[in-house]
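USER:
Make up one protein:

ASSISTANT:
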Amino acid sequence: MIKVSVVGAKGRMGRHVVDAVNGAADMQLALALDAGDDLTRITPENTDVAVEFTVPSVTLDNVLTLIAQGVDVVVGTTGWTDERLDQVREALAKAPREGQKAFIAPNFAISAVLADYFSTQAAKYFESVEVIELHHPNKVDAPSGTAIHTAQGIAAARKAAGLPAVPDATETDGGSRGQSVDGIQVHAVRLRGLNAHEEVLFGNAGEQLTIRADSFDRGSFMPGVLLAARKLASDAPAGLTVGLANFLDL
């Protein structure tokens, strides 16, 4: 049995993680902690893998605390920058337990991970590309970490293919062209009734390709969360892994 502790257990995502762990035949819920609880209660003696789903303002401190405790951690909170990821890598290099692991995913939905992967494959074939992400109005970050990750992957694929900058003849002062992520425009929609959705629009003269992923319920993220926990408890490499695509046979 894989002993799993959940940090952020009373949150929107955390409650689903607790239910998913309780429903998994090969897992056992160790501790369910939330804001104000002492994370040092989570130790290698009672926990094989901790799952952290909180908010961007506290996730780095939580992850660093769990690493210092000698616990492997799966992180679903978004808002990670290269600098923050480097802090996690440094903490793992100094971790108290040899071979310690951390995993951070911009998105745990299999559909979103595949859309992200397919977008990097399509990127070199199209002159234009834009990313639109659509979420519920309570999402704390905009654009989403998933959309930023998608744009970064597309930009890297275009650069590797030697493509020029994406054409954009529109200049505005009001920000209507969205945020530029490595030269790729990313647009964020926040609307009541939505959950988590992403569209990647590719265009050439006379043709268009749309890649879209829709998650209608937070339960759609749970297979990816459990997959990551199982991988960390078994054969995932030591150190930091970013992105669920690393655990899929792509």
Q: What stands out?
A: The chain has two domains: 2-104+219-247, 110-216.
